Fold Putative restriction endonuclease domain-containing protein.
Amino acid sequence: MAHEPMSTQDDTLLEGFLALETPHGFRAELIEGEIAVTPPPDGDHEDYLSLVFEQVLSQSATAMQISGHKGLLLPAGEGKPPNHVIPDATLAPRALRLFRGAPSWMPGDGVAMVVEVTSTNPRTDRKDKRHGYARAGIPLYLLVDGDKSALTLFSEPENGDYSGSHTQPFGKPVPLPAPFSFDLDTGDFR
């Protein structure tokens, strides 16, 4: 006698997450099996992103597309449903036209770098999202940590984390490797 497949707790969590309605301006993410809802960002958060965007668009060796708040579907840790994250910025070479025709939740294939600015739950940006981006093979993860007044560039994803990291306090340049190939000036971050 055939039986209907039973839904697991992870299936129920994923279904609930995908049906979740948030207040206007809030965003919901499913990170390592937990739903995170965050309020709209403050002005400092947006100022940091603006400073990064201006330099990437004017100084990158490769022309870039930047998407703010693009949903990414990433591998999660063992036994957890896939991560559904919304980076503050997702950058890809313009020639790929990666965002054109992409679904709401796209894989990280072709993404050159993601940027996060710490906000209401910095642990998520410092650890959980970092691991998800590394598991997806995203080459670069730039973390702007306002609490620590520093930027960290994570690189070389392997085995669920980044083996390379370079941290600089606000005011010191952060070298961005290819395809960007310029030093990010953080003088205005202070």
In short: Helices lie at 9-19, 43-59, 122-135.
